[in-house]
Amino acid sequence: MSERVEVEAGGVKFYVLKDLLYTESDEWVRKEDGVVRVGVTDFAQKELKDVVAVDLPEAGRRVRRGEAVATLDSIKTTADVYSPVTGEIVEVNERLLEEPELVNKDPYGEGWLFAVKLEDPGELEQLLSWEEYVENVKKRKEEG
Q1: Which residues contact 62 (CB under 8 A, 6 or more apart)?
Q2: Backbone angles phi, psi at 98, to 5 degrees
Q3: Spatial contact of 125 and 133, defined as CB atoms under 8 Å apart
Q4: Domain locations in the chain?
Q5: How is residue 58 annotated by DSSP?
Q6: CATH class of residue range 4-143
């Protein structure tokens, strides 16, 4: 497991993993041999509160970077999850259909959402490092 970094932004304590990439819309990305595994960050799950249902994309679906492909329903709101890359959904975490709380309990592990076969590796360069993601969250919390 990657090195964990504890941070705080706007009174919210959360953690990030150093070896992941991140989006401005609070998804994390783990590179795995031409495939990227995607989930929502610890910060995102804390903002959502208790996740009670997950709507996942179907395997085989072609997605574009920035496209809303999954939905998380929580006691607080409904949130879209966006694909961080263009490609084909090759796997979804069907366990979440029965255990959506895994998004809250283990956001960077068993709470992953879907995996995409990467079409253009160059798109990964447009994602954020953990430091850039933390700065992005802090800026958003300051702006309210």
Answers
A1: 87, 88, 89
A2: -95, -25
A3: no
A4: 4-143
A5: P
A6: mainly beta
- The CA distance from 74 to 135, in Å, is 26
Q: How many residues does the chain have?
A: 144
Q: Which residues pair with 53 in a beta bridge?
A: 73
Give dist(CA 15, CA 25) in Å, integer: 16
pTM comes to: 0.95
Half-sphere exposure of 88 toward its Cβ, with a 13 Å CA cutoff? 4
Contacts of 92 (CB under 8 A, 6+ apart): 56, 57, 58, 59, 113, 114, 115
Do 77 and 45 touch, CB atoms closer than 8 A?
no
11-49 confidence digits (pLDDT tens): 899 999 999 999 999 999 999 999 999 999 999 999 999
